[in-house]
Amino acid sequence: MLDTAIQLAYLAASVLFILGLKGLSHPDTARRGMLLAELGMLMAIVGTLLKHEIVRYEWIIAGVAIGGAIGAAISIWMPMTAVPQRTAISHMFGALAATLVGVAEYYRHAGAIPHVEMAALGFEVMFGSLTITGSFMAFGKLQEIVKGAPITYRLQNPINISLFFVTLGMFAYLIFQPANQHVFYAMVGLGLLIGVFIVMPIGGADMPVVISLLNSYAGLASSATGFVLGNNVLIIAGALDGASGFLLSVLMSRAMNRSFANVLFGAFGGGEQAAATLRAAGEKTVRPITAEDAAIQLAYARLVIVVPGYGMAVAQAQHQVAELAEMIEKRGGTVKYAIHPVAGRMPGHMNVLLAEANVPYDRLYDMEDINAEFENADVALVIGANDVVNPAARNDRASPIYGMPILDVDRAKSIIVLKRSMNPGFAGIENELFYHPKCSMLFGNAKDSLVKLIGEIKNV
Amino acid sequence: MSGISFIELYVFVLAAFVGYQVISRVPPLLHTPLMSATNAISGISLVGSLVLAGADYGTLATWLGFIAVTSSSLNVIGGFLITDRMLRMFKRSGSKR
After folding, report:
1. Above 0.85 for ipTM, yes or no?
2. Which residues constitute the domain of residue B69?
3. What is the average pLDDT value for chain B, to the nearest integer?
4. Which CATH architecture has domain A286-459?
5. Between B2, B65, B72, which is nearest A67 by CB?
């Protein structure tokens, strides 16, 4: 009887999760959808607490209180610019929970586990452990505790690939010999090591793909936990998370015209290549512009398209962007925002920052919807974006980003780029847009430049 | 530990399929909230962790369970709160600021 009630609670939870995610297909229904998902979570938890295996509550209460308090504190006080870091670290916590449950299951049965269960358990701890350290590295890079640029060394790929195959071999061995505890714990250890090694060579601009992949792994690890425990709601929720992460990684790597393998093993921006492009750059000249002149252009523009990038997030300049847009609109101009799928450090990063600055979401346009409008734009205002507006992706076969879909900023009537200096971006790829005859550069920190522009535009 | 049957594989494949269909309709505008929402939902590992922390499986299991409960409730509560905080910010033009 009680078991039936628990199963029904799980079934209801699964349906509510799916309905919750369905709500996210539109901003108007999203919050209601999340309410349904929260209700589903509550039902799943209450159902679980009714299980007869649970005899003590003190550790449960302590864990929920501590975890809940930390989670709530982070979510309430964290600045929106830190969303990518928080997401990365939460993948770590999700994978940690799944891995610990798996290790504890193995430990308490002392390895006496049937083959099929061992396959699920092995999958769970293997993916779980590499997600723990991989996500922690991603967090470290985003929080700038770890150097953000790719860390590479000789024979890196062969080492990583052999490590991976050794671990896979251990996994296969364990399915046939589940009782070999040394191999099991060695596999967990190697999984942790692989996570570090695989994220170390990945640079900041590839973070959207990495975060999505880790999201998918964390989900798959949860799902495998469901197989191990024979719990369907775990399988379903994990599968939803896994599918979502997978879909996002496909979208992100498509937006960079790269394969997963290329992101994971192709650390961009090797020293020699960057040096070569820099030498070539020395022969061309850029046109700096004063804030005063830029303000005049913006003040008289009918259509301004703003292209935000990671530089806007770093400078926390989203509020100044919104303020400048408001002033242009007061003077009769129209301002639209062009959002490249991989602008920033995670999928949808720019949208959230601009929404925080009260930019209405119907002004935010995806790449496919805005690209045709650039030719009508009087000014394209590029704020801290680089690779996503580089015309080399369209016309330079030798460029490492050739073939990547870009925002057609160079088709606008004039271009103003806000940039800290002429240092090439993380990838070390020269951007010919900056030398374009229609392009002028406003150097300085994005926030300071925007404040100056706002000041000047008042005087126009 | 209960025996794995084919039914569970069906559940996984169909759930992944439904998930893919539903999530492919989420606009890029909401991809960040989507990720924190699925994060919160996959905090459902809490279900497994609760049993581990509350059952009488020995001291080590209880400790591992306690850490697992802490991490997954951090994800559940933190994830849903930050998702809501983000979703509240998305406004249409014309709506009051």
Report:
1. yes
2. 28-89
3. 90
4. 3-Layer(aba) Sandwich (3.40)
5. B72
